[in-house]
Amino acid sequence: MAHLFVPGPTDVAPEILAAQTHPMIGHRSQACSDLFARIQPRLRQVLQTDHRVYITASSGSGLQEAAVRNTVAHRLLVCVGGAFAERWYEIALANGLVADRLDVAWGEPHAPEQIAEALRRGYDALALIHNETSTGVENPLPAIAKAARAAAPDTLLLVDAVSSAGGVDLRTDEWCIDVLLTSSQKCFALPPGLAFAAVSDRALERAAAIPHRGWYFDFLLLEKYVQQNNTPATPAISLLYALDAQLDRILAEGLPARFERHARMAGLAQAWAEARFALFPRAGFRSRNCWSKPTRLIWRRCHTAARPTSRGMSGTSPKRSPVSKG
Ligand SMILES: Cc1ncc(COP(=O)(O)O)c(C=O)c1O
Questions:
Q1: Ligand 1 pocket member 291 (CB < 6 A)
Q2: Which residue among 8, 70, 113, 130 has its CA within the 20 to 30 Å range from the CA of 77?
Q3: Is the beta carbon of 183 within 6 A of some atom in ligand 1?
Q4: With a threshold of 0.85, does the pTM exceed it?
């Protein structure tokens, strides 16, 4: 077992690492289409969606870019409360999009009413990080989704669930999420290199009205190929074999049991940490997949203390926490 006390990459089970050694196949072969077809329904099950799921040979940041490029014609609202939301905002600007930001102090969650009020100004899409790994805050997604939908029914909801999907009960369709994106190296416990996006019909219709969506992450192109159980460019075939095997493991454990295990481990890790120092995220909104301590110095101490006995917990150090500045 790898002793990884970071939010991701997480430890990968030996049999999943071994699955990557499957002999190589051609990506236009029947074997590859069969592999892809086997993966799709189980991936949809884990992401709790009936929508298609695009699989890209990239990390999650690639799909942050895809989500905004494919859905924003005029204006985007980005909820910013940590480093990964900052990144999403920067990605939007780097793609020449017009984006506004709705800031909260790092360590605080976003408030549904505040988001609803901002959305009344009129936006194509709302970008929200579900689990802000840099601060350890889990935003109240069901309440935010409901408020956003009520205030601005035509605004698409884009959710980054890089450090929560597969570890937390995340009801993509029930909460009307238009793009739910995640990476392979966190709760999926796979090596890095794959990213997944569950994309609604609404989001696809929006993409069709946007002229310059790029090529590698174009939803319409990905859609054309997903219909044939394939991808436009060469997929990361070894990682697909690992995903195939890991989906079996995840579903054998069962989603409720998996979510409960994550919550229980988070409770243990947080209780351990809280007995030693103050946690950074506001109580009541603490992540079930990572936790955040106040200073780098304490991080070094807690890393050393946790190493010999703890399993599967992870910590992050917020670069811009009020405490770490001092
Ligand atoms: C919440 C969140 N969003 C986005 C990213 C970026 O994902 P990736 O490193 O897979 O590009 C991360 C990475 O840790 C993350 O935690």
A1: no
A2: 8
A3: yes
A4: yes
